[in-house]
Amino acid sequence: MQKGGDSDYFLWKRIKSGNAEAFQELYKLYADILFSFGTIFTKDHELVKDCIHDLIFDLYKYRKNLADNDNIRNYLFKALKRKIQTSGKKSLKLVYSENMSNESLHSDSVAEQEHADDEQMQMKRINRLIDQLPGKQKEILNLKFQLDMPYHEIAVVMDISVESVRTSVYRSIKSIREQLDTKDLLFLFIFMRNSPKML
Asked: How far apart are CA 65 and CA 17, in angstroms?
């Protein structure tokens, strides 16, 4: 097997052997990014935490059956996504934060406050347009711009080709752009360049 990531490869080997310190290391390395990933799919933060804990427990329980792995993050993303989707929730919706940072929101100036409110409304409009995209397109867009994942890693998580990922992102942005006024295009650019801060 080609070891594209030596650190992941050897950490995974230790996990397969049941090394307790390896599981602690795994949790410290990936708990935060897994939580951010999980909140893309559900607003229930406690559910995400439970699914992460269950995932770590399953890794320990079935460690002897694990295949070799040199990209732990992608493996964990796919496993957590499956756990959330099978958690008994009937409705699974992508979550888009409407809390884009805006310093002027705290201004005492009425004029500045009105301007800030207008900007917030424009960002909400963009979020609504994103929410109207097909499910897979929304998911890919979130992985790209909220988690800043490269195309090849998105392809692994989604089980599609890199070219399909690129095409999906292009079509999503094109669809949103065509429904925006010229003055709103700046906020689409802000969304693309400054993704919301995850909890």
From this structure: 11
Number of DSSP helices (H) and strands (E) in the chain, helices first:
9, 0
pTM: 0.57
DSSP string, 74-132: HHHHHHHHHHHHTSS-S------------GGGG-S-HHHHHHHHHHHHHHHHHHHHHHT
Name which of 8, 31, 57 is nearest 198 in CA terms: 31
Query: What tens digit of pLDDT does each residue of 129-151 get?
Result: 888 888 888 888 888 877 778 88
Domains and CATH numbers, the chain: 6-85 (1.10.1740.10), 103-193 (1.10.10.10)
Q: Per the structure block, which two tokens stand in for 65?
A: 């059956």
Distance in angstroms (rounded) separating the CA atoms of residues 1 and 38? 30
